[in-house]
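Q: How would the structure tokens look for this protein?
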Amino acid sequence: MKNFRLYSILAFVISLSLAAIPGCSPVSAPAAALTVPVISSPSNTPAITAPTNSGTPDLVITRVWLDGLMVYYKIKNIGTADSPQTFSHLYVNDLMPVMGGTSFVDTLKPGEERPIAFTNYQWQFDKPINDNKARVLSEGYIELPLSNNKVEVRADGANKVAEMSETNNNRSTLVGMMYDSDLLRVSNLAVWKNKDGILTEPGTENTPAGAHFQIPNSDMEVTPELEVIPQQVPNGWMQGTFGYFYSLEEWNSPNIAAIEIPAKLHFVAKVGLSRNATGSDGVTFRFGLKDLNDSVTWVASKTANTPGVFEDWDIDLSQYEGQKYYFLLRVDAGASPSYDFAIWKKARLLQIND
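A: Here is the predicted structure in token form.
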């Protein structure tokens, strides 16, 4: 800036001197020489921002499977930030193996999914078939002699990462043959009662106390259907208690024990009114659980009003895993019990992998 001022003063003095000389005129400085660069102030400079990783990670297990002797799984970050390095934990039948129970997981970006294996663990687990006779007699329940094993993987097994949700880290699968119990086949062994007490006979459609009996299914297949008629009074009902049926001696009457509910157990049914229930005002099907202290929990219900229309029913019992229960099938009449010919086309206890 000082040089520019000095240049201007000198140019002015020279021009005055030339003006004083006859025949001479001042010479203008080139325009480019007078251009002064503009220096921007800090407020006009665009801000430079560093990339940020705002948000929270969220790790979930999307699949678990066994291939040969190795357990594999897929882990995904469904959160809004990169997940740090973590370790997943393996459990077989709710116990962590002594060797190979952890698996390293590197950083996952939001939305990234990656297959990983428990490389230090070799599958060599065969669940034994236990003799439950002593337990049935002394404690009143049975742990089902299942031929499958529960395999569970937990993301961030040590729970060291702050996530969007801390309740979605686990996923399990069953390896082996699934439990499948057809309740309709053993309906004649169940304990049936109405509001007046236990019924010793199955009855017929005309029995005032109500009835429960097997009928051929519509396709005349081997599997029977179960017709249940509530007691013939307003708001009457009929209820059957199912469990593990056994006999102490070959020709003794059957006994019933509660069942310790295994992993991933579902109650699957198909229910509706018989086609000839044309005068019915509708019935309510109920599925419930009764514990060893005779306390009853009604898990779900379904109402049927139209004869000949049947609906599928799938009730997930996973929340009751490890608890001991009997199973209850019940039919409730409405204001009128007439023509309440309720049909269970299907009623099964099944282990179902998600």
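The chain has three domains: 1-31, 59-177, 181-351.

The CA atoms of residues 56 and 162 lie 7 Å apart.

Upvote if useful.
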